[in-house]
């Protein structure tokens, strides 16, 4: 049962369960279930951060249910160039977000539900949460063969991954979130999560690709809504809390003061790309120019998303060494981003050199 | 737990004020925040501070702004209720006063020491001196008006340092002033430290889920940065969990122990922080596994806490000194660094480098000789540092068995056996056995003379004792074959449990390495053990009274006196000896 918005005051007071004369429902225990009305990945991630930072979760477990419009979410210490096809994402308008928890890369769309289990650091227990999800699934469909693995994944029929896990542990609070594939577009998922970039050497956390399957393919009754309700009721039973799912608006500053700033920070280039651990690219590409076939070698070191060392080696006869050096030095310090590369100014007067320069830039943009 | 908090912190005034404000707000139709109550004042506890890319300050809710003009503009919302806020203040905000505190009795001494807090609303009182007599009555009267009858009041008073000659606080300030956490009243008054800044090792605390090691993924600080308590220091990752490690102290980062992508261990130092404030015997909250530093960190002997700073404690721990034995020369019996050094000097005549861990070193490697291992530490290696190796696997098992073995009352019995004939026999049989693919040593003969016994084996992992089963039905050749097999398996480390168990007693051929007499230790649950010395050529008299060159081997038996008596052992030894001295006799009696 979802409390509609007109009863906002009551709902807000429900959170503040220490009010003595409130006279509202006294639940057996504190704790609640939230569901986001927004499908913006950044806003939803900001809600997670807000609850993690500002809520006192002592004796008050919280479950947060959310879904996003098509986006790719990478883990805290991952390398987006290594994990997903950034060019394709830019073409399709799919957002890229970096979450604060660890783990691997996932694709979200409206056929995927995300569950976040908030608790104190002491009560942090991922396996318990996953067992709860399995119980919920089996409550809807008892024949369903879903098991949690040691790596905290959920496997359907022992081979298809339907859920991945990540978590964040702070000083006193911790959260564990996981996905659940109900009816995601699997072709898009696999095309987006395959990186076309070659020659990346990095210490970033690598994702482990797995075979996935949707719950809907297994059983047409397992839709997102059904799943969310099932998990919410299982959570309420387990933690002895009220089974109401409270709808929240992640942009509401009165409910969550400061949340819009959090959402903004999650969208900055510095956070999404700049937090990539140091990595290097060692690759080459071919240029066809007036029926001559050239191989251009590229060695780039990138730190904090910005180019630190750049060595683009083009054959001397095609592009003079000093022009090449100029190109290299112009890249240093700029973001490893095609948009910024476009803005690189050149003052080459020679048309031919200029066109060669442009070709090179275009090619390099292709690997960004 | 919750009970303790209630006792300590709840004050009627704050609860009633909160309630009043809240109902006020409600009646005015103001939104009360679900996660934050505007009636409860925000305290300035920034979650992150001083690091690049820190969280931006949360925007203040509009109803708060006029109240908090005097505060610094970084109100980070932390808690929901008064009680939990008090708790968090107590946990961390030692000197982070929130804006609503007023000093009522500001005396010159106090004002110098206690930071002034001010707030437009004169709602709270922090009493910083024990009130007596009329003043006390007046204070209580004033409070009574705001007291709700049902609630209890815990008013404690705080003794200033001018009067502080007690170690334990009699009184502490109420309203969640976190003084009662510390046993020393100096704590909250940042007196200029008598000692200089102490460098404290900040260890990686327990993360939970039994995680022992993590990878350092990002540093938020570098050496030389100033950090406050609860500032983020670094981000580590473990198995899909990203963990933010926050500082426990205020101070300056002196050293980072790990680089990026290195593995950090729970319980090991993460950074060194130089702290300025005097810290008294603060308990080390690190829940590390295994290694017992507890007695050095806690040092509570019959309720009396020894006073020493964390750096001094570390020094004591490294030198294996009990703080209770050291006389403190600092204020209030505080143990200073000089005290530890003096103690050390007295003890050893010089300041020695310590052995860091109290783990048992395995006894010197003489595996076949089951003499009682005298724990002699290895002579110092001057070329390099001493290495401490953890006792693992076989060594550990040996430690256990040997310790158990010493509980058995041993007795020894030694004899010499003239094995000249045996030597001759072996010489004859050796090539034949070799032709059959078996290396024939003396052991098969020794074993055949016994029953179903174990052979002590020196392998890379140490001493193991597999046994040859049912010797009574094996021929000498078969025994030799079996021995070979066990030896091969032993050197490969592949002996099975059946090979290793079921021995009745053990023969240890230490003589193949060297030695004559020995006093072997019984391997429980066996009852006897024999150590065979080297075969040496010695002159002996034969029946005719002539001197001949005899091959003499000494055997030393040890037996469990609870089961075997001297006579039995003696008879056995004689029989065994007779078989060996006359191998032909073995042929007669062999089955």
TrEMBL record, chain A:
GO CC annotations on file? mitochondrion
The reactions it catalyses are: N(6)-[(R)-lipoyl]-L-lysyl-[glycine-cleavage complex H protein] + L-lysyl-[lipoyl-carrier protein] = L-lysyl-[glycine-cleavage complex H protein] + N(6)-[(R)-lipoyl]-L-lysyl-[lipoyl-carrier protein]; (R)-lipoyl-5'-AMP + L-lysyl-[lipoyl-carrier protein] = N(6)-[(R)-lipoyl]-L-lysyl-[lipoyl-carrier protein] + AMP + 2 H(+)
One GO process term, biological-process aspect: protein lipoylation
What's the chief localization of this chain? mitochondrion
Q: Which superkingdom heads the taxonomic lineage of this protein's source?
A: Eukaryota
Its EC number(s): 2.3.1.200
Where does the record place the BPL/LPL catalytic domain?
Answer: 57-243
Name a GO molecular-function annotation: lipoyltransferase activity
Keyword GTP-binding listed? The answer is no
Q: In which pathway does it act?
A: Protein modification; protein lipoylation via exogenous pathway; protein N(6)-(lipoyl)lysine from lipoate: step 2/2
Q: Which InterPro entries match?
A: aa-tRNA-synth_II/BPL/LPL, BPL_LPL_catalytic, LipoylTrfase_LipoateP_Ligase
Which UniProt keywords are present, listed alphabetically?
Answer: Acyltransferase, Mitochondrion, Transferase, Transit peptide
Q: Where in the cell is it found?
A: Mitochondrion
The entry's family comment says:
Belongs to the LplA family.
Report the protein's function.
Lipoyl amidotransferase that catalyzes the transfer of lipoyl moieties from lipoyl-protein H of the glycine cleavage system (lipoyl-GCSH) to E2 subunits of the pyruvate dehydrogenase complex (PDCE2). Unable to catalyze the transfer of octanoyl from octanoyl-GCSH to PDCE2. In vitro, it is also able to catalyze the transfer of the lipoyl group from lipoyl-AMP to the specific lysine residue of lipoyl domains of lipoate-dependent enzymes but this reaction may not be physiologically relevant.
The protein, known as: Lipoyl amidotransferase LIPT1, mitochondrial
Query: What organism is listed for this UniProt entry?
Result: Galemys pyrenaicus
Automatic annotation (TrEMBL), chain B:
Ranges for region Disordered: 29-105, 281-304, 353-387
Q: Where is the composition biased (Basic and acidic residues)?
A: 292-303
* Catalytic reactions of this protein: N(6)-[(R)-dihydrolipoyl]-L-lysyl-[protein] + 2-methylpropanoyl-CoA = N(6)-[(R)-S(8)-2-methylpropanoyldihydrolipoyl]-L-lysyl-[protein] + CoA
Task: Give the protein's cofactors.
Answer: (R)-lipoate
Compartments annotated for it: namely:
Mitochondrion matrix
Where does the record place the Peripheral subunit-binding (PSBD) domain? 307-344
| Record keyword Ribosomal protein present | no
Q: Where is the Lipoyl-binding domain?
A: 199-274
Which Gene Ontology terms cover its molecular function?
A: acetyltransferase activity; dihydrolipoamide branched chain acyltransferase activity; lipoic acid binding
Pro residues bias: start-end ranges: 353-365
- GO CC annotation: cytosol; mitochondrial matrix
This entry's Enzyme Commission designation comes to 2.3.1.-
Q: Which UniProt keywords apply?
A: Acyltransferase, Lipoyl, Mitochondrion, Transferase, Transit peptide
Family note: Belongs to the 2-oxoacid dehydrogenase family.
Q: What name has this protein been given in UniProt?
A: Dihydrolipoamide acetyltransferase component of pyruvate dehydrogenase complex
